[in-house]
Amino acid sequence: MVTSYGLLLSEEKLFAELEFATTVLDEAHVIKNYATKTSKATMQLKSGFRMALTGTPLQNHLGEIWNLFNFINPGLLGSLNYFNDTFVKSGNEQSKKHLKKMIAPFILRRTKTAVLDELPPKTEIVRKIQLSDEETAFYEALRRQALENLSNAEEAKHIQVLAEITKLRQASCNPLLIDPNINISSSKLSTFLDIVDELIESKHRALVFSQFVSHLAIVRKALDKKGIKYQYLDGSTSQAERERSVKRFQSGENELFLISLKAGGLGLNLTAADYVIHLDPWWNPAVEDQASDRAHRIGQQRPVTIYRLVAENTIEEKIIQLHHNKRDLAEQLLEGSDMAARLSVNEMIELIRGGAIGV
Questions:
Q1: 3-state secondary structure of 358
Q2: What is the reported pTM?
Q3: Cβ neighbours around 167 below 10 Å, total
Q4: Which residues are CB-contacts of 233 (< 8 A; sequence separation ≥ 6)?
């Protein structure tokens, strides 16, 4: 039986009554959060053997791997409280090595380096963008307001700091994302359109990713104004339309495919593109890498170029620094290094202040 997580959730009782010889979860990171309904429905499945397949076993923090093992090998890592106390909160080198030793026998990895001979070369370019004086002043006012808002709070909470950071990330992309009525042009949008013109002139095709659907909406308007055709996909796109858009793009329709990172970063084969443009950097570079792999995968015959558009002297530069210091949470655990915790509130506030982050 082949089914989707959505159908599993809606028919949870019927699935729980069946007993399978084998259960295989594809894109298993879908159940990374033990508290979700999808995770709870999945845990009810009865089977003699279980397997989980994922390219991103850890996306945000070390605790996510507990739930994957709770499915494939319940009890191996103890209760969630035990796991957090022993491996997450302690954070010492010895506990990380112990955890790696426990899970290693149950993990089979096929890394990108193992198939390099089958893939064309990949070039990654960080395109630094200097904001205009108006954008810089607007961003700085937001940054100072964010620090003031957080200083007034008795004790800044993770979600409050994240909300302020999100505003700064959006302001780095386009001031219109903060104030739809503002009359300040976006340097990033202008740079993006210049790149698109060059790509189209040179007969290249590109995937364009952003975490913000509202950012993609602004990009769509700009492309419509220039008469540039594109395919589009976000979380609200139906499965049928998603498949049609992929087929159209793969068959040669349109030079661009605009995709929200969360909705299209996985499970798509888009080798008709030989360029990937990330409009805004995400915390975990592994998630961006998975999105880039929509084009740089088996079946791709041409070299692939990946652009990351980064606004200078903004929080985006700090996120790119984190990419270098904290390249991949999965690697940190599976290769035994010791940087697999999420950013603390103080570290996040330091991002807003503009100081160095000690991770």
A1: coil
A2: 0.73
A3: 19
A4: 242, 245, 257, 258, 259, 260, 263, 264
CB atoms within 10 A of CB 127: 14
What is 82-145 written as a DSSP string? HHIIIIISS--HHHHHHHHHHHGGG-----GGGGGGGS--EEEEEEEEPPPHHHHHHHHHHHHH
* pLDDT tens digits for range 113-163: 666 667 788 899 999 999 999 999 999 999 999 999 888 766 667 788 889
Q: What's the DSSP call for residue 74?
A: T
178 φ, ψ (degrees, to nearest 5): -95, -45
Between vectors from CA 168 to CA 162 and to CA 174, what angle results, nearest 5°?
135
Q: For 245-310, give the secondary structure using H, E and C.
A: HHHHHHCCCCCEEEEEHHHHCCCCCCCCCCEEEECCCCCCHHHHHHHHCCCCCCCCCCCEEEEEEE
The alpha carbon torsion through 343, 318, 283, 81 (nearest 10 deg) reads: -10
CB contact at 8 A, 240 and 260: no
List phi, psi (to 5°) of 180: -60, -15
Identify any residues that bridge with 46 across adjacent strands, giving them in sequence order: 19
Question: How many whole angstroms separate alpha carbon 259 and alpha carbon 145?
Answer: 31
The whole-angstrom separation of Cα 263 and Cα 211 is 9
Q: Please name the residues in contact with 8: beta carbons below 8 A apart, sequence gap of 6 or more.
A: 15, 38, 41, 42, 45
**Partner residues linked to 232 by β-bridges:** 258
d(CA 170, CA 317): 13
Which residue, 275, 278, 292, 303, is CA-closest to 126?
Answer: 278
Domains in the chain, CATH or no CATH each: 5-108 (3.40.50.10810), 118-325 (3.40.50.300)
What is the residue whose two structure tokens read 């295989």?
A: 24
pLDDT, position 94: 81
Q: What is the pLDDT of residue 174?
A: 97
User: What's the pLDDT tens digit per position in 238-292?
Assistant: 889 999 999 999 999 999 999 998 887 667 889 999 999 999 988 777 778 888 8
Report whether 56 contacts 28 (CB < 8 A).
Answer: no
